[in-house]
Amino acid sequence: MRVAERLDAFMARANAAYYAQRDPFADFTTSPEISQVFGEVLGLWAAVTWTMIGQPTPISLVEAGPGRGTLMADALRAVRQAAPDFAAALRVHFVETSPRLRAVQARVVPDATWHDAVEDVPDGPFLLLANEFLDALPIRQFVRRGDGWAERWVGAAGFEERDLPSPADRSSHAAPWQLPSADTPDGAIPDGAVIERCDSALDLAAWLAERLCRHAGAALFLDYGPAVSAPGDSLQALSGGKPVDPLSEAGTADLTAHVDFSAIAAVARAHGAASHGPLPQGMFLARLGLFQRANRLARHRPPADAAAIMDGVRRLGEPDRMGRLFKVLALTSPGCEEPAGFS
């Protein structure tokens, strides 16, 4: 019999079991697997950003949630060709908890160093790349009930709603990330509406901001979600490539939720870092030369290969595909100029 647990605890347990036991790429395809150009342009973005922050040497090039290692392998290939000084200065660090995925990554990027959490990366200048990392972090859900809020737990019969034990538990962060109250303009949120909060993402933003205030660096997040915070239940699950009940047996499906970019940016700024974006992914990648690079890559390929290359980058960049739903947010050390792709 399932013991009731808070939604974020259930989601964390479910995803840990899922990534330990299953091949996630049987259920979904991420941007690096769609086109090699994705990793290449992000690698060159990192090289340009390294120059912008003063070319610190050595510098940690960190990827959170590196999947099969494809993004980093493509990034390193582009960097070694176009920015050899950056290639010599960087040290690759992967944030990955799955032993099975670590083994896959080691075959592709054998010189990497692995960590269980971003906070474990050695102190110093760093550049962080995180593609579809935040969406898998566990969320809490709060449901509007009258002039207050209840929190969702997962029990034997599905969702349960429980009163919050005290106002102090409503947020681990100061306003404006606290739950709206009835005596504010946000009190117009209708009864039954759901607000999601990802404490892990907000804690990460605060930690990164504090580190960015000590050391030169930047963090780049690419993920899906709205540009502006809004109520809504975005919890979803995939198994066998198809949507399933998010409350399925833990470990049988990949659970994700929309990323609240506005909240993450606000926390980072409150802790001293600068934020840039979020921008639609298509706009950001186009500014980095996604389509020009794909055209050069396709130019001397057989027609079928060339068509596949161009279809891949269109899938990443076109608004009716991944170009609008996915967003890009950068956090940088205070005083840094705006990173490439954001203007």
Walk me through the structure.
- There is one protein chain.
- The chain has 343 residues and is of the alpha/beta class.
- It has 2 domains: 12-137 and 199-332, Rossmann fold, CATH 3.40.50; 140-195, no CATH class.
- 37% of the residues lie in helices and 23% in strands.
- The protein has 12 helices and 15 strands.
- It has helices at residues 7-21, 31-34, 36-52, 70-82, 84-89, 99-108, 199-214, 261-270, 281-287, 290-298, 303-317, 319-323, and strands at 5-6, 59-64, 90-95, 113-115, 126-131, 140-145, 148-155, 158-163, 194-197, 217-224, 236-239, 242-244, 254-256, 274-280, 326-332.
- Strands 4-3-2-5-10-15-14 form a 7-stranded mixed β-sheet, with helices on both faces. Strands 1, 6, 7, 8 and 9 form a 5-stranded antiparallel β-sheet that branches. A 3-stranded antiparallel β-sheet has the order 12-11-13.
- Helix 7 runs parallel beside helix 8 and helix 10 (290-298) runs antiparallel to helix 11 (303-317).
- The N and C termini lie far apart (54 Å).
- The model is unreliable at 168-177 and 182-186 (pLDDT under 50).
